[in-house]
Design brief:
This protein has 3 helices and 16 strands. The protein is 9% helix and 55% strand. It is mainly beta and 364 residues long.
């Protein structure tokens, strides 16, 4: 465990002190948080014992580059962050995590700025499920986890030109994305208060940049996704899955688009789930009925060649019941050319992660 912690700290410091001539502002922030664990499944009742607490240390910078991205998003902060959380539970233990994050200023005034920070990264949990020694831990099935957090800061008290005190709300999520069960995941909603110190600051010189005109036509896209995951049955093994998606997208403005389409899922991990239902719950399902079909609507938030994807869908064809017919998808899309793009997304059934999807797509 100490090796993982050391790796996170070294990576964080290396990025913090790397040189970049385009940076015009550098800050370091330390937040302490105290919150509540969300009991989104009754199986978590025995795992949740007391209220969690921890800290988040962040290094932030602003680049003074004339770009469409900087102009549209009012020169956002970006950086790296390191989180420690104590779940205050002998079942769940503690977690350490490192993130890449972005901070958007949602209000123009100098004081009491409304700022939204989103971070994505990986974490290490000290406690995981064990059939003998920790069978109440239905939230965490492996030590290595994917993680994300959202932080909304508002109240800001300036001590001097360089030091300020900040407070707000945060939501923190940990899951291994269905690679090892049980994996209900764990979510924390917390109050945070912290201090922020300016390491380097100079005047921001905003430069005009030509913003492309909006393409108002509907674009059609085909994407093929794949990966491996495990069924709800513990130690049932990893199996490959394949997803084909056809959807239309229409730009609303230069940084936002709506999407709608169809998903076809070939989910071979479901075969083990079907066998379990037939043997233990008097099911009468065919073991080869592991294909599903879904329909979804979504949104894409564009940041240069990257886009943040959010979708909600409904499985209209599913011969075998599995968690929920409602599903969500979150992740990133990267533009490789005018027609080709790649994606890394997480498919979720309500609060339960099903799979990490890696895909390649084509825009017609």
């Amino acid at each position: 465990m100490k090796n993982y912690i050391f790796f996170f700290v070294v990576l964080f410091l290396a990025n913090c002190f790397s040189q970049n001539n385009n940076k015009i502002s550098e800050t370091i922030e330390l937040d302490f948080f105290y919150g509540k664990l969300i009991e989104h499944d009754k199986k978590l009742k025995s795992a949740i014992q007391e209220d969690p607490f921890g800290f988040l240390i962040s290094w932030n910078y602003i680049k003074n580059q004339p770009s469409e991205y900087n102009e549209m998003y009012n020169y956002p902060e970006r950086g790296y962050s390191f989180l420690y959380e104590n779940f205050n539970s002998s079942v769940l233990g503690e977690v350490y995590a490192g993130y890449r994050h972005y901070t958007y200023n949602l209000s123009p005034q100098k004081k009491n700025q409304l700022k939204l920070t989103t971070g994505f990264g990986i974490g290490y949990a000290t406690e995981k499920y064990d059939e003998v020694s920790n069978n109440f831990n239905q939230a965490i099935g492996s030590n290595l986890l994917a993680s994300a957090y959202v932080k909304l800061n508002y109240l800001q008290l300036f001590i001097d030109n360089k030091l300020s005190v900040n407070s707000g709300l945060s939501l923190i999520h940990f899951s291994n994305i269905g690679l090892k069960n049980p994996n209900l995941g764990i979510n924390t909603i917390a109050l945070n208060i912290g201090v922020k110190y300016d390491l380097q600051e100079s005047d921001l010189i905003k430069q005009e940049n030509d913003i492309n005109s909006i393409d108002s036509k509907i674009n059609y896209n085909l994407i093929l996704r794949s990966g491996v995951n495990e069924s709800l049955i513990i130690d049932s093994g990893l199996f490959p899955f394949f997803t084909a998606t056809f959807y239309g997208s229409k730009k609303l403005n230069n940084y936002s688009a709506i999407t709608a389409g169809l998903d076809f899922f070939n989910s071979r991990f479901l075969k083990q789930h079907i066998i379990h239902l037939n043997q233990n719950e008097s099911g009468n399902y065919s073991e080869n009925e592991y294909n599903r079909g879904g329909i979804f609507i979504g949104h894409e938030l564009t940041q240069n060649n990257f886009s943040f994807i959010s979708q909600i869908g409904y499985t209209f064809y599913s011969p075998v019941p599995y968690v929920s017919n409602i599903y969500e998808r979150f992740g990133f899309k990267y533009k490789l050319s005018n027609h080709l793009f790649s994606e890394v997304t997480m498919k979720v059934n309500l609060f339960r992660a099903e799979a990490l999807e890696i895909g390649i797509g084509y825009k017609f």
